[in-house]
Amino acid sequence: MLSKEDQRRFEQITRRLRESDPEFFARLDQRAQARRGRYLMLLTVVLWASLPAATVLAGRLAGAVCAVVLLVNSGLMWRYRRRWL
């Protein structure tokens, strides 16, 4: 946790760096988006793997809930596919 003074200095440094080298910040932003995409893909794989087990162990309702979450996740992946490809 930074003190208020250190936080202010950090924001000032990042603001100056952003103004002086916008390409660097654009690359950082792309890397962050790709990282989020990888986490979303991992979540999808885990949901696919857990769907049969959830259905068997917890019943049809849990399986249905997991399937709905998986469909929403797949929809989000399809919607934002350009960000992480």
Sequence-ordered SSE layout with sheet pairings:
Blueprint: H1 4-20, H2 22-58, H3 60-79, H4 81-84
Unreliable runs: none
**What's the helical proportion of residues?**
over 70%
- The counted number of beta strands is 0
Note the main sheet. none
Word description of this protein:
- The protein is mainly α.
- The protein has four helices and no strands.
- The chain has helices at 4-20, 22-58, 60-79, 81-84.
- It is elongated, with a radius of gyration of 20 Å.
- It starts with a helix and ends with a helix.
Features:
single chain; 85 residues; mainly alpha
Q: What is the gist of this entry?
A:
By secondary structure, the protein is mostly helical. Helix content is 92%, strand content 0%.
